[in-house]
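Build the 3D complex.
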Amino acid sequence: MPKSKDGVEPDEIDLGAVLSALADPHRRRVIHDLVNDADGSERSCTSFGLDVSKSTRSHHFKVLREAGLVHQVDRGNRSEVTLRRHDLDARFPGLLELIGRESAV
Amino acid sequence: MPKSKDGVEPDEIDLGAVLSALADPHRRRVIHDLVNDADGSERSCTSFGLDVSKSTRSHHFKVLREAGLVHQVDRGNRSEVTLRRHDLDARFPGLLELIGRESAV
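Done.
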């Protein structure tokens, strides 16, 4: 059975934590790609082609999840994420467009 | 004679450095206040009411300057900053509005 990992409530998403999460180029690339995917797309954490170790990748997704940028769910032996597009657009209008527009992240 | 401190060229402003600079609440408060001032306003570094030591304040303004968020100039015994509004709006549309809208920074 899929198991959701804890995240933050929509009204607790903190701009400082979001900006800090997005300051890292690997994490920004994940959000950039998710912004440009179809709304609601679920992606495997391994699908972004991040050139980092498994533990570093896990760390990056933990930071993104705890900042409120993604929902993460474990499905058997893989972990999947979705962008919290609605929550983020409601709270910080323009932020996702800004990240999605960046070229060559 | 006023002495400008070094900054980065407009086309070298890096989104990662900007987001990292803005992740800190003191630095975000400075930019928040500058965004909501009149365009081109020059403000003393001491005018933002940051509750930090002088050396910490100097550090924060150095980070903002090196990220390309402000221009800084020394005028005798005080240091003044202006927001690089045009450069930032051209490069990252929507970013300054996002920071300027945040309440209770």
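The interface with chain B takes residues 15-17, 19-20, 22-25, 28, 92-95, 97-98, 102 of chain A (CB under 8 Å).
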